[in-house]
Specification:
The complex is a heterotetramer. Chain B is 73% helix and 2% strand. Chain B is mostly helical. Chain B has a two-stranded antiparallel ribbon with strand order 1-4. A two-stranded antiparallel ribbon of chain B has the order 2-3. By secondary structure, chain C is α/β, with parallel strands linked by helices. Chain C has two domains: 213 residues, 3-Layer(aba) Sandwich (Rossmann fold), CATH 3.40.50; 155 residues, 3-Layer(aba) Sandwich (Rossmann fold), CATH 3.40.50.2300. Helices cover 40% and strands 18% of the residues of chain C. Chain C has a seven-stranded mixed beta sheet, with helices on both faces. In chain C, strands 2-1-3-4-5 form a five-stranded parallel beta sheet, with helices on both faces. In chain C, strand 9, helix 9 and strand 10 form a beta-alpha-beta unit. In chain C, helix 2 packs parallel to helix 11, helix 3 runs parallel beside helix 4 and helix 5 packs across helix 6. Helices cover 50% and strands 10% of the residues of chain D. In chain D, a hairpin with a 5-residue loop joins strand 4 and strand 5. The chains are: A alpha/beta, B mainly alpha, C alpha/beta, D alpha+beta. Chains in contact: A-B, A-D, B-C, B-D, C-D. At the B-D interface, helix 4, helix 5, helix 12 and helix 14 of B face helix 5, helix 10 and helix 12 of D.
């Protein structure tokens, strides 16, 4: 709990509530697979500069919603805006260039590239990424060196500088999560979207990951993350959004959420009969 | 006899087939080895080069040099756009199916007598390479390089290997640039690349074009070497040969495709000659193998090589085994 | 770039240097005293069925030539090779055989394959002699005077086919034609004379021999309801004929014609009841003017007892004998010296019909004017190095599926 | 240079093999004895050079000879001219002075009332004749015929043939092609179900699937045509289906299950399947040879006329039987436990696994059933067309088009897509030359991918 939550003090803890300074807004977003509605969100806003958690039982449609917000999936209907710009019909890669970077539930470390290559890939606006300039190293060499030193300092911050030449495929699950997060920062994003950053990470690394996430906020970034682990949610998030069966059923500060009746019944209900787990198992 | 086998094997190792399949394989390596594109229609890119050149010269009466430009750039780029626009947004197998189908479509179109005026139908086009041979410093009737090549072949040999060298240099520069880094990222995980703001579609399209252009240059060298362009020179099996070359040498390595192509043709030439001599000397009994069947055994060999390599040594002969083990898909 | 790569690059560059440095070692086709024939004949591919008789013809020629004492005092050498049905295989074979210093190539069966290698062969100064190319394209091809063929151009057979259809009084005809230069070339050669004589072509279709089925093509033929149906094709004729018989337009219902590509015993033998092809007629180039053919067939069977067809075996035999005679006349095995002699050996002068007889004439007098009439015909080569006279046999399947010769037509090519 | 790999050739009794040389020797006799030994007297060689023919009207139902028609033949140099008048049987003949160029002209005014030349421009024909030959001149009678073109239907079919009953030619051709297309589509569909199910359950695009089709056809041919056993085609087909099914199972056990267990990527599995495709194809060529082969049963059957279309009985059986098999497959997928399990695995493999389905077993069954169906499809295709070493590979491209069209991984989609492809191929010959008919089907594939990448019945999901 930090003082930042104060900005949301006046916000009513109800689904779809208005935030004072939303960076990301989604309205009427729905997506169905073969007749079953996986996501049906009326309205949601994400406050700038805070850490927001998106939780819900298995099959609640969290990852699908995540994909819709980052344009990795196309909604059947609905509008999303990021920093006032509409995301409708915008290609996923352009979303990243607007300043919204995501990670994936199953880590997408690029196995057959070294840690350093992974990092350097994250930098945007690289001259040498044009096919014609690429042929002439003198056109992009200087910029590439700058990117390399930026990558090195980030690696040092994430305490991965000793493995910069190793293939990403040799890293452990937790290290991959770290690498993915560090790589996302190379984009210099305004908002970071983390899909289950703690999944498959051993306890020893968990704390450092948490610290890094808090660090993102300290650097002025907005964080939205999907998570199962309630302890973690309690510890670092400023605001919590709860999804079940594709809808947002509750919103509010972390403390109030665990007492919310709708949330409790959704979580309990999920244990009786596991509904289809749309998308979450990609 | 043994000397005959030896010269044939060496000719396979460095001869014109090794050259144009090396180029086809370099292109395919950019597609598959670096970008993860499943192009099963490299033959049609080679055909684009061959027909771009020959149609410019024979059908439209253009000069050989204009033909080179059309064959190397115009035809393959158009082809890559046609193939890529519907498929590159889809899962990798779609490109595989569309390319293999396109190779067949092309062959049928080039064969149809209705287009005889333009394509020469099943006989194809010939007589477009005189300008090239006029520049040859070698005497056509002389034999060069330890008797391996006729003068004209020698000229193709020299120009061909220089082209291969240039293409290797180009590949080296591109792959070791930030552009190449994005390609590799797309190969590893397209979504990750997109999440980092890379326009995967554009990069895949560029890779498809680049690899296609190199394949087309291979096709042109083939057409120049045989001085003809025929639809049946570009059957689906040609693509498979190029694939074997890539995987044999090691996908995703700079030199792999060239080494693979040389080894493939070396092995095929050796097997061909050895089996032929075995048949004619009676060492291989008739019930087992007749001269007619030697050519079929070659394809069985190619098939088994593909199976073995993809299964047991996906990294190829020279690829890094540890690196391949990282494939977590 | 890692170390291995660098080494390889260096090796590659080194190789090119050597290549540039090594001068000419020897000249192919030049006289080394031993006449060598290279084969580029189909062992594989979709013309593979034409291979065995051609190989048998070639082997028999070698036997006969060497039995008569060979050429220039030495036995001639036969180095067979595969042409496949695409340029790859043929090119590899040609490379290999050029390396063996052959003086003349015998082949290929397919005009298309010959076109992929003709430049390579003729520019190397070696004779390219095909026993089976019938495409008119070769008549005018710029071949340095080194391309020859013993098979007559399709123009002759086409005219004979048109004649045959007219003789039988067919006013309308439908053509089903294989899509390659053989099929379309023969179609043009037959259609012209047929239409000129008042016939009407009600339907013509060029088909893909590898098509899944021929329903559509046969449907069109049925709809066109012609008096006669001509099928110009190879092995796939058995499929088409099956469809035609089933659709009620088979040899029992209509006048059905074939050509040398399909008028073979194999066609009848692909039917369990060969009587269904009874009455089908067709043309086949070739005639026996020397009266030695029964003997020739027996000798072929001795060479290859498994022979099923004999197409182009005589043409192959004659091609080799001619080149051997040319070498004797030129007193050299240099292809560029042999080639100018070949056309004259086929016409004007003292007739002889066997290698041994012709050789005797030539050895008695090196400048003797001889006229070799081969087992495939009188030859009578024109300036383009191809027969100007040809006999076309008219064949018909009888009730037991056997081929009977019912007539022969003499054809002339204006040149 | 033996052709012993074509096993069938061994069966031929040697005496039926009349050699070309013997034929040629016969020709020699013709030449020497002036036609004494010739079988067909109509075309016997003759000593006179003649032009002639028979004037008749064959445009009606009856073949009607025309009497009293005047025909003049002149030599090109004008030195010879003679006119003949047709007799009661319509025949005429003019003896010419020798070989050379001539012009034959009919006098249209002498034609009986109501008869006109089919092609009035051809009232005069030039021809060249060698010494001693006869030239038939044709002056066809009837209504003018449009110039023919491939794919053009002539318009004025003069009737009389079995197909033209009551239906305009354009329509009957359309319906005939539609029926032919459905037949092709049903066969491709049966073959493609396995391809689609294997893809659905394992994600593998199996390029070696076409070889199962070939092996099915060749196995049946082995027992019905190739060897001397002459087992009935029904039994041979059943054996072929069981054998290919077994082979599919073995294939899965020895190759694909191992690769899956090893964690091989789908791409390397795809390459392995291509390797098997090439290998098996050339093994078949090695043993079978390159020619078209046929079953000995039901070799040739007359078509039965159904009015707008006609089919041989075997094709009717093929269509009925494949429809029956496909309905059975549908019922099995829909109703039985294993069918449901297959669909569940294809739908969502992890979910199926977690709900207690033995995924590996289901995949094995998919391989067995899919390969068996492909083998059966091959038997049927061999029956309606012919058996050859490349048949499966060529069908594979159409199967790709069909399954993609219908939606990859869905059994019903595969079927629907293949029917569309089959019909499309046949109908496209109305517009494009038949030798390019596959182009249409393959182009459709590209268009579908642009417009509806998930295929006709595929679920809309982001692909890729």
């Amino acid at each position: 709990m930090t003082a930042d939550t104060d900005v949301l003090a006046g916000v009513s803890p109800t689904p779809g509530s208005k935030k004072p300074d939303p960076i990301l807004i989604a309205t009427g977003v729905s997506r169905s697979f073969g007749g079953l509605k996986a996501v049906d969100v009326e309205h949601v806003e994400i406050q700038r500069g805070l850490i927001t958690a998106l939780i819900g039982p298995n099959g609640a449609g969290k990852t699908t919603f995540f994909n819709l917000l980052t344009n990795f999936d196309e909604p059947d209907s609905g509008d999303r805006t990021f920093e006032g710009k509409s995301l409708n019909g915008v290609a996923a890669y352009k979303v990243a260039n607007l300043g919204m970077v995501r990670t994936f539930q199953l880590t997408k470390a690029l196995s057959k590239m070294t840690v350093l290559e992974n990092m350097k890939l994250g930098a945007t606006g690289q001259k040498g990424e044009s096919m014609f300039r690429a042929i002439f190293p003198f056109l992009w060499r200087d910029q590439d060196n700058e990117i390399e030193s930026a990558a090195d300092s980030l690696l040092a911050r994430f305490k991965m500088d000793h493995m910069r030449e190793e293939f990403a495929g040799t890293l452990s699950g937790g290290q991959r999560k770290l690498l993915e997060m560090a790589r996302a920062l190379m984009v210099k994003p305004k908002m970071v979207m983390l899909d289950e950053p703690m999944a498959g990470v051993n306890p020893a690394l968990k704390q450092s990951l948490l610290d890094h996430i808090k660090g993102l906020k300290a650097d002025g970034m907005t964080v939205l993350f999907v998570e199962h682990d309630m302890d973690m949610v309690q510890e670092i998030s400023d605001w919590v959004i709860v999804m079940a069966e594709g809808r947002i059923i509750a919103e509010g500060p972390p403390k109030s959420i665990s007492e919310n009746e709708a949330v409790v019944s959704a979580y309990l209900g999920s244990h009786h009969d596991a509904p289809l787990d749309f998308g979450d198992d990609e | 006899m043994l000397a005959g086998i030896l010269t044939d094997t060496i000719r396979g190792l460095i001869g014109d087939q090794a050259i144009y399949f090396a180029l086809a394989a370099i292109g395919l390596n950019i597609h598959f080895g670096y970008t993860g594109l499943l192009n099963f229609g490299q033959a049609v890119f080679m055909a684009a080069g061959a027909y771009g050149l020959s149609m410019t010269v024979v059908t439209f009466g253009g000069s050989f040099w204009v033909g080179l430009f059309v064959g190397a750039f115009v035809f393959p780029v158009i082809l890559a756009l046609v193939l890529g626009i519907p498929t590159l947004r889809l899962r990798a197998d779609y490109l595989a199916m569309v390319t293999i189908a396109t190779a067949e479509i092309f062959r049928l179109i080039a064969r149809t007598p209705g287009l005889d005026k333009w394509t020469g139908s099943s006989d194809g086009l010939s007589g477009f390479a005189r300008d090239f041979y006029d520049l040859s410093p070698f005497e056509p009737r002389q034999r060069y390089l330890f008797n391996l090549f006729q003068g004209n072949q020698m000229w193709v040999f020299v120009v061909g290997w220089i082209t291969v060298g240039l293409m290797l240099l180009l590949t080296y520069l591109l792959i070791n640039s930030p552009w190449g880094r994005v390609l590799k990222a797309i190969r590893e995980d397209e979504d990750a690349a997109r999440s980092l703001g890379k326009n995967a579609f554009t990069y895949k399209m560029q890779a498809l074009i680049l690899g296609g252009v190199i394949g087309a240059i291979g096709g042109m060298i083939r057409a120049i070497g045989t001085q003809s362009a025929q639809p049946d020179n570009f059957i689906t099996d040609v693509t498979f040969f190029a694939w074997v070359a890539v995987i044999l040498g090691g996908a995703g390595t700079i030199f792999g495709p060239v080494i693979g192509s040389m080894m493939l043709w070396c092995v095929l030439a050796f097997a061909d000659t050895a089996m032929r001599q075995g048949v004619s000397s009676g060492a291989l009994p008739d019930w087992l193998l007749t001269g007619t069947q030697v050519g079929q055994v070659r394809f069985m060999l190619v098939g088994s090589l593909l199976i073995f390599l993809a299964w047991r040594r996906p990294q190829g002969i020279f690829g890094n085994k540890e690196e391949m083990a990282l494939d977590d898909r | 770039m890692n170390k291995t790569s660098k080494k390889l690059l260096a090796a590659g560059l080194g190789l090119s240097m050597i290549a540039a440095a090594c001068g000419g070692d020897s000249v192919a086709g030049s006289g080394d005293g031993e006449l060598k024939f290279g084969g580029i004949l189909p062992e594989t591919g979709n013309l593979a069925f034409l291979g065995p008789p051609e190989f048998a013809g070639a082997e028999l020629a070698v036997q006969d030539i060497n039995a008569a004492g060979g050429v220039l005092g030495k036995d001639v050498v036969w180095l067979p090779g595969d042409s496949g049905d695409n340029g790859d295989v043929a090119n590899q074979t040609v490379d290999r055989l050029l390396g063996e210093d052959v003086d003349a190539f015998i082949g290929a069966a397919s005009s298309g394959v010959s076109l992929t290698v003709i430049d390579k062969i003729t520019q190397a100064g070696v004779i390219h002699f095909s026993p089976a190319n019938t495409s008119p394209a070769f008549t005018t091809y710029d071949d340095n005077g080194l391309y020859f063929r013993t098979a007559p151009s399709d123009v002759v057979q086409g005219a004979a086919l048109a004649d045959l259809i007219l003789q039988d009084g067919n006013e309308t005809v439908a053509f089903l034609v294989l899509n390659d230069s053989y099929g379309t070339g023969l179609l043009e050669a037959a259609k012209g004379p047929y239409e000129a004589a008042g016939g009407t072509v009600t339907y013509e279709v060029v088909y893909d021999p590898k098509a899944e089925n021929f329903d559509a093509e046969i449907g069109e033929v049925v709809a066109a309801d012609p008096d006669a149906i001509v099928v110009i094709g190879f092995d796939e004729t058995s499929k088409i004929l099956t469809g035609m018989i089933e659709a009620g337009v088979g040899p029992a219902d209509k006048a059905v014609y074939g050509t040398d590509g399909n008028m073979g015993n194999a066609l009848a033998s692909s039917f369990d009841d060969p009587s269904v092809v009874a009455g089908m007629r067709g043309t086949l180039p070739g005639v026996d003017v020397a009266g030695t053919l029964a003997d020739f067939k027996a000798k072929l069977d001795a060479v290859d007892p498994a022979l099923e067809d004999y197409s182009y075996s005589a043409e192959t035999y004659d091609a080799m004998v001619l080149v051997a005679l040319g070498a004797i006349a030129a007193n050299s095995d240099d292809a560029t010296l042999i080639a100018p002699k070949l056309n004259d050996l086929t016409k004007g002068g003292e007739k002889c019909t066997t290698f041994a007889a012709c050789k005797d004439l030539l050895e008695a007098d090196n400048d003797a004017d001889i006229d070799y009439d081969g087992v495939s015909g009188p030859l009578e080569f024109g300036p383009a190095g191809e027969p100007t006279q040809a006999s076309i046999l008219i064949l018909e399947f009888d009730g037991s599926g056997s081929l009977k010769v019912v007539d022969s037509i003499q054809g002339q090519i204006d040149s | 240079m033996g052709r012993d790999h074509v096993g069938k050739n061994y069966e031929q009794a040697p005496e039926t093999v009349v050699s070309r040389a013997v034929r040629i020797a016969l020709a020699l006799l013709v030449a020497v004895f002036g036609g004494l030994a010739v079988a067909a007297p109509a075309v016997s060689a003759q000593s006179e050079t003649t032009a002639g023919g028979t004037m008749r009207d064959r445009s009606g139902a009856e073949d009607e000879p025309l009497e009293g028609v005047k025909i003049t033949v002149e030599s090109a140099d004008g030195t010879f001219s003679e006119t003949a008048v047709t007799g009661a049987d319509g025949s005429w003949q003019i003896v010419l002075p020798g070989g050379g160029d001539y012009v034959g002209t009919i006098d249209p005014s002498t034609l009986p009332a109501g008869k006109t030349l089919r092609n009035p421009d051809n009232a005069s024909l030039s021809f060249r004749l060698n010494e001693g030959r006869n030239r038939n001149l044709l002056f066809p009678i009837g209504d003018p015929v449009d110039a023919p073109a491939a794919g053009d239907d002539g318009g004025t079919d003069d009737g009389g043939d079995a197909l033209a009953v009551d239906v305009a030619p354009g329509d009957n051709k359309f319906i005939q092609l539609l029926v032919d297309g459905l037949k092709l589509g049903l066969i491709i569909g049966m073959c493609a179900i396995g391809l689609s199910l294997v893809f659905g359950t394992t994600g593998l695009v199996n390029f070696a699937h076409g070889e199962m089709v070939t092996i099915g056809a060749v196995t049946a041919y082995l027992f019905n045509g190739w060897l001397d056993w002459r087992i009935s085609l029904f039994l041979a087909g059943a054996i072929a289906m069981v054998f290919t099914g077994f082979l599919g199972g073995v294939f899965d056990k020895l190759v694909w299950a191992r690769l899956r267990k090893k964690g091989a990527s789908l791409i390397s599995m795809l390459v392995v399947s291509i390797g098997f495709s090439i290998f098996l194809r050339y093994v078949v060529l090695y043993r079978l040879g390159g020619r078209a082969n046929f079953y000995s049963d039901y070799r040739i059957q007359r078509r039965i006329d159904f009015g707008p279309f006609s089919l041989p009985p075997k094709d009717i059986f093929i269509m009925g039987f494949s429809l029956f098999v496909l309905v059975m497959v549908g019922v099995l997928l829909q109703r039985t436990r294993i069918g449901k399990a297959m669909r569940a695995v294809a739908d969502n493999r992890d979910l199926a696994e977690s709900s207690g389905i033995d995924v590996q077993k289901v995949i094995r069954i998919v391989w067995v059933a899919g390969s068996g169906l492909a083998g059966l499809g091959g038997v049927l295709f061999g029956l309606t067309e012919s058996i050859g070493w490349e048949m499966g590979f060529r069908l594979l491209l159409l199967m790709f088009a069909g399954t993609t069209l219908g939606g990859l991984g869905t059994a019903y989609g595969a079927l629907l897509g293949c029917l569309v492809v089959g019909v499309f191929i046949q109908l496209s010959t109305l517009i494009i030359p038949p030798d390019t008919k596959n182009i249409g089907a393959l182009l459709t594939l590209a268009v579908i991918l642009l417009v509806r990448p998930q295929g006709l019945l595929g679920k809309k999901e982001r692909i890729g």
